[in-house]
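SEVERITY: medium
COMPONENT: batch folding queue
REPORTER: lab tech (J.R.)

DESCRIPTION
The queue accepted two submissions in a row. Attaching both inputs and their returned structure tokens so the on-call engineer can compare them side by side.

ATTACHMENT 1
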Amino acid sequence: MSTKNIGIKDVAQAAGVSVTTVSHVLNDVAYARVRPETKEKVRAAAEQLGYEPNRLAQALRTQRTGMLGLLSEDIATTPHAGRIILGADEAARRRGYNLMIINTSASASLESRTTDVQALLERQVDGILYATMYHRNVELPANLGTIPSVLVDSVSTGKNITAVVPDEERGARTAVTALLDAGHTKIGFLNNTDDVPATRLRLQGFRATLAEAGLDGGTAPVEAEASEVQGGYEAALRILDRADRPTALFCYNDRMAMGAYRAAAELGLTIPDDLSIVGFDDQQLIAANLHPGLTTVALPHYEMGAWATEQLIDAIEGKTDLGQTAAKPTILDCPLVPRNSVAQPSGG
């Protein structure tokens, strides 16, 4: 039988259920009372037969297009955007939706971003995902509030849109704990200079974790520079030139850690024998390819993209109210990714 001729009646017959039940399952009707095993049977039958719903008919019936807009900053220049897009796309496809993507810039004006949102609205998307390049507070275009929307890796200054962000403080705690568990008590932090949540929260996590371990977190050495390779190099040279040189460094991100590797090499320090280093981000091109491989904390970009998409679709389909989750962002864990840059301190 050609898949072009497969209809909802064929799926119903194969699954041994009524046409109404098949319709309820495949259209995710919120009020329908269908047992989980029946839903699984219907979906399995539809997949086996190659049944594909008539999207035009669905759109006319539900007043939905099955398209989600994704406004993402700097797609071409940051690996983070790719992971967010992948998570969002795979979650959308599982639910029968597709993504329409528009690239913008982190430095784009409010007027420019308003125009981008309007472009998605004119294409009649059912909802919009708004993803930023890094965790920060953002002023949002007013027209974003006219349609179900979820923020990814950012929080609205008006606290009026559902958002998902990484657990920056807990991620820092995880990184510092890895160094403490290896036996280090002299730990320094290479921090960012930008006034963003990650700068403050990672420093807070660094100091608090040391204090809870019985160390003086308040006076632990901290050097701040731009969060790039050169900044990490310069900050590491300063912190490693101290008389009470740290035996371990926690770095704001993997790029700064890369700079710290260079500084350590110039000072004749071997990683991890003389100096242990933990990064943050888990940028594969950096962390997995440094020698030795960089132990780091992963930002949950894929997970944030997937979570935001699930929430957005639930709102579109009337299964949840985004207004109830707008006041406070959802926070996702940042797990440790162990590699080979951490060891016991020399003589430990």
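ATTACHMENT 2
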Amino acid sequence: MTRYCINGTFLSEKRTGIFRFAEEIIKALDSLVGENLDIVLVVPKHTSIPFSLKNIRILEYGFLKGIPWEQTFFAFYALTHRRIPINLCNVTPLLVPNGYSVIHDISYKVNPQYFSHWYGLLSRTWHCLNYWVITHFARHIFTVSEFSKKEIEKVYKTDSQKTTVINNGWQHMLKVEPANDSVFAKYNLEKQKYFLSLSTIAPNKNLKWVLQAAQNNPDKTFAIAGSLNPTRFGLDLNLDELSNVKFIGYISDNEFVTLAKNSEAFIFPSIYEGFGLPPLEAMAVGAPVIVSNIEVLKGIFENSAHYVDSQNAYINLDDLLSSKLADSNEVLNRFSWGKSAKGLLECLN
């Protein structure tokens, strides 16, 4: 029997879109695993796990967290227990590189201009090392879109048979209980009278586009959720100069559901993405979606989203939203965590 161990270091860290992918894939995989596969989810000791599993065993092992745990204790466990690692979040244990790994995108490699600050340079160096190791030594590579697959093959000259696309899904949103209407008072917003955006200060997320759109549409309100820490990327943005922009900080999944479905639209003007999960989540709860016209997003949302030029925020949002779109179910029906878990499982088998 083949024995595997899933790298669970992400469960000890703050949730991101990539970590959401890892969590949902593990839960979907758990429902598919049969007796012919022995899979254990290995996490640092004292890790709080927000879900239960029936078929995949959970093991707390070793101290430390994050990269130090992943590169020492997880690697040691895989080696000493002769298990094949499954890495779901862009990074592999360098001492055991011959596992199965997911590369969500290679932005650190192809967009060096985004990572000129010391933190960005350090992170870029680390991720580019992992990209190289994974593309040269992994048994198989997974990625989340056909666009990212093409990028990996173009840059690292990998064989097309070595990489399999397993997309993100949206079904987790069905399990989220919407926040009650007090959320509007909490953030000083009125139903159907604001645009919602979920962003970070990372340059590829293109926060500047939203700020420029707000400046060009002074009669509209823009609510921006997420962590905005300019020092991480060395950016100098004046985030307080526009009266029609509200920075509401981190929001829960419950709040996201209520705020997205009651917004005029969800805005996602990214310059570069591996997939683009937030607009899919917004679409899943019924929000109109405005996304940039980059290749990956056009491939995902096709005729069911409103498109904008990521370099041009001079746009009339009312005119944009008046255009007719295809049924969002045409998009939603193409993506599910179950389909992606089956794709991963087929490669393991």
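NOTES FROM REPORTER
Residues 177-332 form a domain with the Rossmann fold fold (CATH 3.40.50.2000).
No errors were logged for either attachment.
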